TrEMBL record:
Family: Belongs to the group II decarboxylase family.
Identification of the protein by name: Pyridoxal-dependent decarboxylase
UniProt keywords, alphabetically: Decarboxylase, Lyase, Pyridoxal phosphate
Residues that bear N6-(pyridoxal phosphate)lysine: 291
Lyase is among the record's keywords: yes
Cofactor(s) this protein cannot do without: pyridoxal 5'-phosphate
Listed GO biological process terms: carboxylic acid metabolic process
UniProt GO MF annotations: aromatic-L-amino-acid decarboxylase activity; pyridoxal phosphate binding
UniProt keyword annotation of Lyase present: yes
InterPro entries registered for this protein in UniProt: Aromatic_deC, PyrdxlP-dep_de-COase, PyrdxlP-dep_Trfase, PyrdxlP-dep_Trfase_major, PyrdxlP-dep_Trfase_small, Pyridoxal-P_BS
Length: 455
């Protein structure tokens, strides 16, 4: 099975590379659609057998049955949730990462890969405005990124409280965030057995310093170990008032975490950079390059202003790891939940190195340009109404006269024809249409064609 010279391996190698080339060259990719388990049972049958079904057959099943049963999240008219639109270069390099058997949890084992990942992290840290000593790690997604940052925040608060006789008994530990914050914040609170306290939104649906102050005072600021602001909420794309939130966090000495999983990428775009004013004061920050920075799944950049605080919270100690943990090296695993890790930042690094950061700024700007076009088109059409002026690249709007069932029927209809994947969302109990535009190949024509289906 491990023989590198077996004829089947050479053949399969060629076929796998040919498939990858073909898939990456499809323009447009088919949207495809999910199938029921019974359909897949019938189409593919039993694939795990004592003798094996051969690589050729498994690849054929993948090509003809399994892949077409998965939505193409990189389709230009896939505008639901948050799409993923990897550059061809980053997707190709993912094959190289898999072929290279790199363990990227430690410097000892993965120095070259970790060094390259850290350069890519540095570009992001510079966009945020974090100091030279800041740093972090690429983790699987925003959920783990947020959890890891919050664990470091609580570890820091506990260490401080332990030194103070009054603080030693703080219970429960609290996190402040708005109800517009991502569900992963509630999930992290659950995992950490912390209490999530909701801060009321201002009239622009943002977290602000004054509202935060009121909530902190109400519950006792000493019980909060973190404040989470969002730089681009997932549902509406709203950027909180980071400057006033940062100021209140600094005043009370509370860890300021910014969740930019979706919207952090906008830092690269000069036309919206001003919305992030104050982000440079954050203690930790995340952004998912697999969302709006054109990397394949799964890739979240987690950064700490002071990486020592992340390390203190996350380093795992075990006899068999002593050789790693006692070395002064930069071990990525020391900065997040999780130990074993693939060099998941490398596909992003490769594409960034190849194309240069200007191309990234231009690609993000291109999606913002299409967003502005969509906004204007919605304004122009009498039966459509914008719900909120987009801060970034999420557009939420209503179709006047439609019931929730009308939205659902419309969404099914354009999906069944393989034309577009746009599922409805809701805000304050109302069903609405939503576009998340993070794919630079999504064009004005795509937007017009989708809006035409709502007439
Ligand atoms: C998507 C998202 C997350 C979760 O990220 P995953 O990569 O899906 O785990 C967290 N926060 C925000 C604002 C998001 O948009």
């Amino acid at each position: 099975m491990h023989s590198k010279n077996a004829p089947e391996i050479a053949q399969i190698g060629e076929a796998v590379l040919a498939y990858a080339q073909w898939r990456l060259g499809l323009d447009p990719v088919p949207l495809d659609h999910a199938r029921r388990p019974e359909e897949l049972d019938a189409l593919a049958g039993r694939t795990i057998t004592p003798e094996g079904i051969t690589g050729a057959r498994a690849l054929e099943l993948f090509t003809e049955v399994l892949a077409p049963s998965c939505l193409s999240v990189d389709h230009p008219r896939y505008l639901s949730f948050i799409p993923c639109a990897p550059t061809p270069a980053s997707a190709m390099f993912d094959l190289v990462v898999g072929a290279s058997s790199v363990y990227a949890g430690s410097w000892l084992e993965g120095a070259g890969a970790v060094w390259a990942e850290n350069q890519a992290l540095r570009w992001i840290a510079d966009l945020v405005g974090l100091p030279a000593e800041s740093g972090g790690v690429f983790v699987p997604g925003g959920t783990i990124g947020n959890l890891s940052a919050l664990v470091a925040a609580r570890h820091t608060a506990r260490a401080r409280a332990a030194a103070d006789p009054e603080g030693a008994s703080v219970r429960p530990w609290r996190i402040a965030a708005t109800f517009g914050a991502h569900s992963s914040i509630a999930s992290a609170s659950e995992v950490m057995d912390a209490e999530l306290v909701g801060v009321p939104l201002d009239e622009g649906l943002r977290l602000t310093g004054p509202n935060l102050r009121t909530v902190l005072e109400e519950h006792g600021p000493g019980t909060f170990f973190a404040v989470v602001a969002t730089s681009g909420t997932t549902n509406l794309g709203i950027v909180d008032d980071l400057a006033s939130v940062a100021e209140v966090c600094r005043e009370y000495g509370i860890w300021f975490h910014v969740d930019g999983a979706y919207g952090g990428a906008g830092l690269a775009a000069p036309s919206v950079r001003h919305r992030y004013a104050g982000i440079e004061h954050c203690d930790s920050f995340i952004v998912d390059p697999h969302k709006w920075l054109f990397a394949p799944f799964d890739c979240c950049a987690l950064l700490y202003r002071d990486p020592a605080l992340g390390r203190a919270a996350h380093t795992q100690h075990a006899a068999y790891l002593d050789v790693l943990t006692e070395a002064p090296d930069w071990n990525p695993s020391d900065y997040s939940v999780g130990l074993t890790r693939r060099a998941r930042g490398l596909p992003f690094w490769f594409s960034l190195a190849m194309h240069g950061t200007d191309a990234y700024a231009a690609a993000v700007e291109r999606t913002l340009e299409v967003t502005r076009f969509a906004t204007e088109e919605i304004r122009r059409r009498p039966d459509l109404e914008l719900v909120h002026e987009p801060d970034l690249s999420v557009v939420v709007f209503r179709r006047l006269g439609w019931s929730p069932a009308d939205y659902a029927a419309w969404s099914d209809r354009i999906m069944d024809g393989g034309f577009a994947f746009v599922v409805p969302t809701s805000h304050e109990g109302e069903t609405l249409a939503r576009f998340a535009i993070v794919n630079p190949t999504t064009s004005e024509d795509d937007i017009t064609a989708i809006l035409d289906t709502m007439a």
